[in-house]
Amino acid sequence: MFEMRRRRRYSKWNLTENLAGYLFMTPTILVVGTFVVLPILYAIFLSLHKVRLLGGIEYKFIGFRNFTRLIEDEQVGIALRNTLEYVAIVVPTQTVLALILAVTLNAGIRGKNWWRILYFLPTVTSSAVLTLIFMWIYNTDGLLNHVLAFVGLPTYNWLGDPAVALKGIMIMNIWSTAPFFMVIYLAALQDIPQKLYEAAELDGANWWQQFVYITIPLLQPVTFFVVAIGIIGTFQLFDQSYIFSGGTGGPNNATLTLVLLIYQAVFRNLQMGYAAAIAFLLAVVIIAITLIQRRFFGGERM
Known about the structure:
This is Sugar ABC transporter permease. The chain is mostly helical.
């Protein structure tokens, strides 16, 4: 009898405790459900339908036709190729540059606080403003071509030449995003125990050996984070490409990206179902590359 009462009391207490836990979780569940789960479910619904927006919203079920259209659409291939090229160049470059800047600032150079502020300024500046500034710099009669001509290098039509238009966006974004990752690396460097370097120095290790065998291995989890965030961010390239090309992805589709293609499908062609299918393609590519990176670059050690 006593055992039954004790079990009943324990069951009641356990129920109350669980209920309290779910009540504390309710705000998070509502936010995630409203702004993450429901949009994903609605995007799945849209991708399986042809949506008519003018004259009242109408949905026509077409199955996987939007997804099969992705294979046939030449614009999707161009946008995917441009996006992959952009990611493949920008992510490694900005990661290496961020690490170099962080190591330099962590070395105790004179006026390092002012250097930190100076380096970090591009990160807190509006992306649209930076793009407009660089469009002025990239003008055929702009600052960059004047500098190139002064040092005897060839000049380019950075805004109108398909061969260099995307590279102009790469240069701008590497310059503006590397300082953000520099701060992350700098915080990680300051967490490495100094006694490790002192012990290595006593054993005769020079600065390069300390960097290769102490700094880089201990920064591996941070590097995985930096690269993962960089991949996600670069795959979502939109505003710079939109401003550079006026929303067309020009010249000759040289700056067309997957996100810009999604914008065009929704706001120019009014094809919301097709835009949802492109968005799922983008999500699959990002997830696949992140998992590959995690598998081969030791993200599981984080």
